[in-house]
Write a structure and sequence with these properties.
- The protein has helices at about 5-20, 50-65, 95-100, 120-130, 145-155, 175-190, 255-265, 265-270, 275-290, 310, 315-330, 335-355, 365-375, 385-390, and strands at about 45, 80-85, 110-115, 135-140, 160-165, 170, 190-200, 215, 220-225, 235, 240, 250-255, 290-305.
- The strands form three sheets. Strands 2, 3, 4, 5, 6, 7, 9, 12 and 13 form a nine-stranded mixed β-sheet that branches. Strands 1-8 form a two-stranded antiparallel sheet. The chain has a two-stranded antiparallel ribbon with strand order 10-11.
- The chain has 14 helices and 13 strands.
- The radius of gyration is 21 Å and the shape is globular.
- It is α/β, with parallel strands linked by helices.
- The chain folds into three domains: about 5-50, no CATH class; about 55-310, Spore Coat Polysaccharide Biosynthesis Protein SpsA, Chain A (Alpha-Beta Complex), CATH 3.90.550; about 315-395.
Length: about 400
């Protein structure tokens, strides 16, 4: 590994130390993805100074957490923006999430809630909220379909010019997030706008007691167009890495999102997928988009929890999501040598992380074998990388 300066080395050492001593960060594994390489502008910043930023937004966050919504919001025939939120058993978090949308300065929005077959009181809570907020549209899935399906069908329904994605336990950080991001996208004719997030484990705790406050971010604003944009998720500043693959820290043109959903196709987005679904959909979107701008604006307070539906899923379901992402990279990349060779890293990552020999007899083995066969037949893949794949997955050939 190459470190460009002593600060990067210190950050990296500090990060490893936290991984070893802090149980609350155990979801990060010491087996780094092969694309994760240190570079001049590190994405992961663990910084206690984020408490100062939290103090600035605390008044708004407290309002979202504690004050009941007594306002009535009228239906908007032509909203400026649409907010998509997949819901699954989120009775404890959905109220402040909705409040963080309702208390925004911009009121010309629609809120599409996809109830993904919740078994708790989520349905009652959102139906009660809909009585006061006529901008809310509720979609009920007949069975648990997963986040990819829920977001996809919601995107096809949207009327707003831009789409904001949000998880059911997150909150918008300030009252002007919609105004700022929407106006930035509108005035500069942007397809995708990315913004800063703060991730933490308990946003109800007093700020002084909050631990593990961190953010995935870049120090400066930047702008990208194709063809660089197509590989940006897996390449930045000349280094190969998988990063910034979340839906909830971005705003996208609804026409682009719909185009990506249609390109993906109902056969694919109807698959039950709650692991790597963000990465898969984002890869399609970024390869179809014209441009992207990253703005230095704190927009989301992202609540990390190991009790969510995602973390409770079996390794088998997680493995399916990783194979799905590998399949998407192959089918939606730009068909050049650089893009295709990036696939090998994801394939080896799957092998190393999931100890693939344990899944030889599972249904995932048939899917993985079909994807691997596509890879080794790909004319853009180098002979060296084909030999690597065959050697690594020898039991599949």
């Amino acid at each position: 590994m190459i470190f460009y300066n002593i600060k990067n080395l210190i950050r990296f050492a500090f990060f490893l130390d936290l991984l070893l001593i802090d149980k609350k960060l155990y979801t990060f594994t010491l087996k780094f993805h092969p694309f994760y390489l240190p570079y001049k502008k590190p994405i992961l910043l663990i910084d206690k100074s984020k408490k100062k930023i939290l103090k600035k937004g605390r008044k708004y966050l407290d309002k979202c957490l504690n004050l009941p919504n007594k306002h009535t919001y009228k239906y908007i025939k032509q909203p400026k923006a649409s907010v998509i939120i997949p819901l699954y058993n989120c009775e404890k978090t959905i109220k402040p999430t909705l409040h963080s949308i309702q208390y925004q300065n911009m009121s010309q929005i629609e809120i599409i809630l996809i109830n993904d077959y919740s078994t708790d009181n989520t349905s009652k809570i959102i139906e009660k909220a809909q009585k006061y907020d006529h901008r809310i549209v509720i979609v009920k899935n007949n069975k648990n379909m997963g986040a990819l399906y829920s977001r996809s069908i919601a995107a096809l329904m949207t009327k707003g010019e831009y789409i904001f994605g949000l998880d059911n336990d997150d909150m918008y950080f300030y009252h002007d997030v919609f105004d700022y991001i929407y106006n930035k996208g509108k005035h500069e004719n942007l397809d995708i706008i990315g913004f800063l997030t703060i991730n933490l484990w308990n946003y109800t705790a007093p700020i002084k007691k909050m631990k593990n406050i961190y953010t995935f971010q870049y120090p400066d604003e930047f702008y990208l167009e194709q063809p660089e944009l197509g590989t940006w998720m897996i390449k930045f500043n000349g280094k190969f890495l998988v990063h910034n693959n979340m839906i909830w820290d971005k705003c996208m043109k609804s026409s682009l999102y719909k185009k990506a959903v249609n390109a993906l196709g109902s056969k694919r987005f109807s698959q039950f997928l709650i692991w790597a679904e963000d990465a898969s959909m984002n890869f399609v979107i970024f390869n179809l988009a014209r441009n992207f701008k990253y703005v230095y604006k704190y927009g989301i307070l992202h609540y990390k929890s190991n009790s969510t539906a995602t973390f409770k899923q079996s390794p088998d379901i997680r493995l399916f999501g990783e194979i799905f992402f590998l399949d998407i990279i192959h089918d939606f990349s730009q068909n050049n040598i650089e893009d295709k060779n990036l696939i090998v890293g994801q394939a080896i990552y799957i092998y190393d992380r999931y100890n693939i020999s344990k899944f030889i007899k599972s249904h995932n083995s048939y899917y993985l074998k079909s994807v691997l066969n596509k890879l080794i037949k790909c004319k853009y893949l180098s002979k060296l990388n084909i030999r690597k794949l065959k050697k690594q997955f020898s039991s599949f050939f």
